[in-house]
């Protein structure tokens, strides 16, 4: 394995890009900590169970891809990757976003644009990301076990939230306060019509709401107060995209 990694490390020293995907790695190679100018780290399709705290020394890292590994959480030191733009933790064993019990403030992640934590075992919405200072464009939490969208959602800066195929049954009214939110995907959850916050229809910026596959008839959804106002935003969005 060392012979396989060595030339990749050498190349990464020159390019700032390290790709060690599909090498059956069980941990992040120690040599990586010396790549202080690394901008992109692809660890996908391995068997990594933990990311060591020393990941924080990679101050120039913009892209971290750990898709399809065995991670159960990310280290609290993630907050020190202040240039991070893309985080892909899709298809792991994530039960928690950040190490349980860790006191962490992700305020410094002011460059973070995309977060993919889909196909994991998260039971709680990652409220650590609900900060005004994190300008996320897209957060994908589909195919998890999340049941509640909490009050903290009001501070999330995402333009698109994908929560398809979870167990969502309760949504905080605060979601209507998301200043940048345009697209909300809630297909195949456990929502009842009486628990849907009509503020999303009447008083939000959301122009696309996907709710097929929940515990109500779509015809009843169309009759909710404010649906016509939502459709005005939806139609305007379609015209703008045409």
UniProtKB/TrEMBL annotation:
TM annotation in the entry: none
One GO cellular component, as annotated: cytoplasm
Organism domain of life: Eukaryota
Keyword Repeat: yes
Keywords for this protein: Leucine-rich repeat, Repeat
Record InterPro entries: Leu-rich_rpt, Leu-rich_rpt_4, Leu-rich_rpt_typical-subtyp, LRR_dom_sf, LRR_domain-containing
PROSITE patterns documented for this protein: LRR
Name of the featured protein: Leucine-rich repeat-containing protein 57
Species name: Schistosoma margrebowiei
Pfam hit, one: LRR_4
Entry annotated with the keyword Lyase: no
